[in-house]
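USER: If only I could read backbone structure tokens as easily as an amino acid sequence. It would mean a lot if you studied the pair and described how this chain folds. Here is the record:
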Amino acid sequence: MSGLAFWRAPDVDRQLLDDEHVIDEVRKVWVAFVWPVAVVLAAAILLLWSLAAVPVASLWLPIVVSLVLAGYGLDRYLAVFKDRLIITDSRVMRVSGVYSRKAAWMPLSRVLDITVDRPLWLRPLHAGHLTLENAAQEQGLREFRFIPRPNERALRIHALRTGSTSAPTPSGSAEPAGRRPNHPATPRARRDRHHLT
């Protein structure tokens, strides 16, 4: 069962405090998977071509190259799949890592500036990049690339950081922002996810 852990989504619940709630869990858009998938396909094509055209005595070399390419592509695919931006009612987290799990977080109060970058080629996909500036400039938490609807994520972080009574929803309407840690505990589900794709 331990081998299957590579294919599982990161366990975000283990990073949460008892009174902390997930407001948004952000996965990367499909375009971020194009390169890893292309590498795996190239490895498969190379292997098939080698079996048909390369003499048996020299077949070992393209087989090794194909396996290396396939392993690299699979590793990059899992790295993209497991890289998540987590927005809770008190902090911003990044959970990543394939073989060793990494978790970095920053309190919402430390977010000084938010930059949204939406390149022209990503606009039809409603995707872009999000940059969070803070005094310490933690590199692991600074830039989030290829995320869906970065404007809405930026507004949600800003609303939570400033204590606004409303935050944008996937449909563009407003809803009450997540409970802050100093608010009285209320009986509600631990996770309040909004997956935008």
User: Anything to note?
Assistant: Helices lie at 34-53, 60-82, 150-162.
